[in-house]
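Reviewers of the previous submission asked for a worked example of the structure-prediction workflow described in the proposal, so we include one complete record here. The input consisted solely of the amino acid sequence. No template or homolog information was supplied to the procedure at any stage.
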Amino acid sequence: MKLLANKIALITGASQGIGRSIALQFAEQGADVLFTDIRADERSQSLLDELKALGVRAAFYAADASSLEQTEEVSKAIAEEFGRVDVLVNNAGITRDTLLMRMSAEDWEKVIRLNLTSVFNYTKVFSLMMMRQRSGSIINMASIVGLNGNAGQANYSASKAGIIGFTKSIAKELGSRNIRSNAIAPGFIETAMTRQLSDEVIAHWKQEIPLRRPGLPEDVARVALFLASDLSAYVTGQVLCCDGGLSL
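From that input alone, the workflow returned the following structure tokens.
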């Protein structure tokens, strides 16, 4: 039997990268997959087509995850069409990297708003649905820089550290309702974002990773699958690093 049979999963910011891999992994394991992104485009349509080709129900919602109003609109649409959400993956995020002395207030606020406030929005809205069900798994995408920091990423690191604290707090608040809350902290993962780095920077990262290779989006997706499934039924409030040992 498939690990996510009869479950409905919602993933934010899923049109590309890690979110896309999670969506496909979940569908392959039997979940109906709903996903959001900031706008409808070729990437979102392509993912929607791929999900449906796997034989599951799928839907896309164009929405700004940093907007509580738009999050509530997504919730209403999902409630009407699907009735419930069993797994929520808060994946939406951006970077605006630069040293603190060069960082604008806009760079700070935009990263905090999309990376951290979006987690508040979706968890606040969809945990109500999960509380009525008395079940659910919330998976928040953090980062090892939320644990260790990183020069030039004060805004991104702060947002991811905030997600970790939020995840643990929600685990304590919602555990009595059989709702689990966990975070994944990816390390250096090959995505469109990291492919923009120079060959020298990539070579340096590889040397720092004990497994001597960058991670793939599929590596993170498999960790998400564990947290979404009943294999992790007694796991909550945890941060699972998926980094090839980089944070050691």
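Helices lie at 17-28, 42-53, 68-81, 105-133, 145-148, 154-174, 199-208, 217-228. We consider this example representative of the routine output the project will generate in years two and three.
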